[in-house]
Design goal:
By secondary structure, the protein is of the alpha+beta class. The protein is built from seven helices and five strands.
Amino acid sequence: MTLNETMIETLRERGIRVTAQRIAVAEVLAAALDHPSAQDVFERVKRRLPHITRATVYNTLRVLSEKGLVQPLHFRNGTRYDGNPLPHANLVCVRCGAITDADIDENDAITRLSTALAESSGFRIIGQRLDVYGFCPRCAAPSSRRRRTATAP
């Protein structure tokens, strides 16, 4: 099954009307490793569908979020979108704003904690979000630290 066929099937399973625009937005998010903003998604989809509007992209992001296919990540500087539906942590660079997924497996402490919380409370967990803040490898590099120190007030 191709990515396109898988995307169509997933949209239908979630009760989402399938359109070329929605498929394009979903495919951009599924392929994105950088957790794009709505504007980034719009620009990427526009390359494939030149006549798409911002409103269509924003509405599609809302629908995909409501149906659990995309997770909006709200930060001080705006909302970014995570197309990875599997449990994972987001590694957020406090200097450049890069966000990287850190995959976790079923034996990970986060998964074990979620399972224990669900079992002890009867709470039906439908999702989680874990953001870890620090410096990405590029910003943590010695040359980057010297520049940061040299330019600090």
